[in-house]
UniProtKB/TrEMBL annotation, chain A:
Record family assignment: Belongs to the ETF beta-subunit/FixA family.
Electron transfer flavoprotein alpha/beta-subunit N-terminal domain residues: 23-213
Pfam family, one: ETF
Protein name: Electron transfer flavoprotein beta-subunit
Organism: Thermoplasma volcanium (strain ATCC 51530 / DSM 4299 / JCM 9571 / NBRC 15438 / GSS1)
A single GO molecular function term of this UniProt record: electron transfer activity
UniProtKB/TrEMBL annotation, chain B:
Entry-linked CDD domains: ETF_alpha
Example GO BP: fatty acid beta-oxidation using acyl-CoA dehydrogenase
Record-linked InterPro entries: DHS-like_NAD/FAD-binding_dom, ETF_a/b_N, ETF_a/FixB, ETF_alpha_N, ETF_asu_C, Rossmann-like_a/b/a_fold
Name listed for the protein in its UniProt record: Electron transfer flavoprotein alpha-subunit
Gene3D superfamilies in the record: HUPs, TPP-binding domain
SUPFAM superfamilies reported in the protein's UniProt record: Adenine nucleotide alpha hydrolases-like, DHS-like NAD/FAD-binding domain
A GO molecular-function descriptor: flavin adenine dinucleotide binding
Domain of life: Archaea
Pfam families hit by this protein: ETF, ETF_alpha
Residue span, Electron transfer flavoprotein alpha/beta-subunit N-terminal domain: 19-207
Homology family: Belongs to the ETF alpha-subunit/FixB family.
Amino acid sequence: MLNIVVMIKQVPDSSEVEIDPVKMTLNRTKARNVVNASDLNALEYALQIKDKVGATITVISMGPPMADSAIIECMARGADRGILITDRAFAGADTYPTGLTLAATISKIGNVDIIFGGDETTDSSTGHVGPGVAEFLGIDQITYAKTVDYEDGYVVATRELEDGDEIVKVKPPVLVTVLLNSNLPRHQSLRKKIDALRKGVESWGVNELGLKPEWVGLRGSPTIVRSMKTIKEIEHMKKKIDIDHLGDMVKELVDKGLIKAGGSQ
Amino acid sequence: MTGLINAIPATNKDEYKNVGVYIEHRGDELKRPSIEMIGIGKQLARKVNEKLICVVIGDKVDGIAKEVGEYGCDIVLAAESPELAEYRTMPYAEIIGGYIQEYKPNIFLLAATRNGRDLASRIAVKSRTGITADCTVLDIDENRTLLANRPTYGESTLAEILCRNHRPQMATARPGIFPPAEKEKDHKYEVIKKKVDVDKKLLGKQILKFIPRKSTDLTSAKIVVAGGLGLGGPDGFKMLEELANLIGGAVGSSRPPVDLGWITRDHQVGQTGQSVRPDLYIAVGISGKPQHIAGMKFSKVIVSINKDPNAEITKYSDYIITEDYRKVIPALIDAIKNSKKAQAPVQKA
Ligand SMILES: Cc1cc2nc3c(=O)[nH]c(=O)nc-3n(C[C@H](O)[C@H](O)[C@H](O)COP(=O)(O)OP(=O)(O)OC[C@H]3O[C@@H](n4cnc5c(N)ncnc54)[C@H](O)[C@@H]3O)c2cc1C
Ligand SMILES: Cc1cc2nc3c(=O)[nH]c(=O)nc-3n(C[C@H](O)[C@H](O)[C@H](O)COP(=O)(O)OP(=O)(O)OC[C@H]3O[C@@H](n4cnc5c(N)ncnc54)[C@H](O)[C@@H]3O)c2cc1C
């Protein structure tokens, strides 16, 4: 049977995050925490493969203890096992130690065939974690997949690129990152939720993974955020134009060389 | 699965010099985001009197290598093999990783396209260094430290991220933000070509098919006429098209009309669409949410047409027209057509 891992991250619900109109910063305090949206699309493809050929699905997440609710939610949708990677030492990780930690987790699970993740998160949206994990593990990857299937021992997927769709075929082990909205994630089932709560989420820390505290979290991060600046906005004229005076605006646009008099024809 | 790379030793910074850029192309077509990377790469390199080194990988790449040189690159590293005709993560990452070890660039940049992002963090991990994603501002200081800035928190804040002790300092940059490089007459450059034997183990990924999609490149349009949810349906875009055709513009969209299928995704402007910086941006029935503003706020002149006088888009507008677009667009088309008559000599019927 296939051994599948789905990587998920708990993030503030982007539709509930409010922008502070004065400071122009995000007010996250009111937002609920949810599973990152494209991670649910990734889980759905994992479940479809499980439905088709049978698989054990393990959901893993690196995060604070409260992230166990996100894992339970995934188990309520059909994942078999949940592991929360949590330890003070993991805090403040950039994508390098995040990739290292997730790869160490996957190595410890052992004999994993397919690893799924989202294309990017809605909070820091680097999209760098998936490929980083694949490199740490030394395995191939398929990113930005909008369809994923498992056929005759191969993962077949469609990658959506800027200039077209690329259909690829890779023999596991392989890591796949899934495009946001590429499928319709199934709902949670109450029975599965009860099972999940009974089963519980395993919790692994630095020691369980055989990592050293200085390799992970902030200390293991090659990058630092030096400063955060509010983006200076360009000044705009904010000139109100009445519908009866559009000609005045057009004349100004023509004078500035932005459009040609009479149009371009 | 192979063993993990654990601790990352700090690199000796003095050994690292010059600016490296990965070049994307499909066959003989050099991708525009890479021309932008050459532009910013050149700027950074010249500021500290270093060289720009570009990496080109493919089957037959002489044409692309030449073009890259003409754009002002100093050294073009060209890796060739029939097996490299199409982009594939594993062999490409291996080659770039090898070049980085050999040439030790202080900075290495990629465009944050899908294939660019597919590669970028693999190369960072391979080279045991950090990487900043999706930058919109890049600069270098007197210590040759890359100041990598990326927008965060709904595009309201710019985070400056540094890679302190590891080299190269890597970043991906958002397409459509940096002006593309211009060709330099008589620029001297060197092409270092290498025929590679690709390790069969890296060729596991089979590309069964590539289905090209007609894509609207909004990033090079001088005028963009964009519609939002306020258009109320796909027909609204017909009206915008008429206006765009009249003034030689391209049609853009906010995200909801794309999600609703009123227009295809290649028209989407914003954080998860294209970043545009035309001379003139006309926003029709668009409220001006941060994720949309992120993709168009560098436009020179912005006109907004919105029923709501308090819509956020007005804060970013040079001209504000508060009215139903169904009335405004035909009137605007007339006004533009008439602007000719006013300037042309009067003709007798
Ligand atoms: C404002 C801001 C800017 C940042 N910029 C950078 C930067 O430029 N470079 C950098 O190295 N770091 C950066 N970071 C740190 C980065 O957010 C963390 O490393 C984070 O742990 C993972 O990044 P992501 O959310 O971008 O993941 P992405 O790479 O966007 O996530 C892709 C997928 O990877 C999986 N995944 C990601 N995180 C986890 C997790 N914790 N557990 C399980 N699965 C996961 C999920 O499947 C997810 O869908 C930044 C953080 C902030 C707050
Ligand atoms: C992770 C993430 C990524 C996103 N990425 C993007 C992105 O790349 N691009 C993007 O655009 N959005 C993006 N969004 C969505 C964004 O948050 C907004 O929902 C979206 O920009 C709103 O689109 P809109 O302005 O067309 O619609 P609305 O906000 O609904 O505004 C419609 C406007 O039309 C006006 N209107 C209505 N009828 C008329 C009429 N007859 N005449 C004139 N005006 C009229 C209304 O007054 C209103 O201001 C993203 C969101 C998330 C969470």
